[in-house]
Amino acid sequence: MEGRKMHYKDYAEERAKKSNILTDCIRAFIVGGAICTLGQLFHDFYVQMGLTEKESGTLVSVTLIFLTALLTGLGVFDNIAKVGGAGTLVPITGFANSVVSPAIDNKAEGMILGLGAKIFIIAGPVILYGTLASVVYGVIYWLMQVV
Questions:
Q1: What is the DSSP string of 26-86?
Q2: pLDDT per residue as tens digits for the range 10-48
Q3: Rounded to whole angstroms, how far apart are CA atoms 82 and 33?
Q4: What is the mean pLDDT of residues 119-144?
Q5: In the chain, what are the helix, strand and coil shares in percent, each to the nearest 5?
Q6: What's the pLDDT score for residue 89?
Q7: Sequence-distant (≥ 6) Cβ neighbours of residue 137 within 8 angstroms
Q8: How many CB atoms lie within 10 A of CB 123?
């Protein structure tokens, strides 16, 4: 930076840790697969307990959300995410983590301005654009059926 002005983007890229894409993909595959395997184990357990497939599927979602929220609150899920990267973004666990993390980070600001105002700071755009995308796809699908 001697004698020249460096933009923040250039500075950040220069200092950023370079990642090995192959290693990252393998880790994501293993961790994501482990989460999905855990979900399947819960599913099979719930079916063995006499629940229907639909009930079991619902209970698996609830169980994975609960476990992710609990592990996020205990600080364990962040360590799993450091190893597994994108593998932890399996939709249900990634969403649960994206709701709980801001709630924990902002609880000191109070129930209204901290937790209440910032709980969906990460998950909000996912909900918004996911809903928007589903409406757009639904309209396109409907138009294709009409024509």
A1: HHHHHHHHHHHHHHHHHHHHHHHTT--HHHHHHHHHHHHHHHHHHHHHTTHHHHHHHHHGG
A2: 888 778 778 889 999 999 999 999 999 999 999 999 999
A3: 16
A4: 87
A5: 80, 0, 20
A6: 85
A7: none
A8: 19
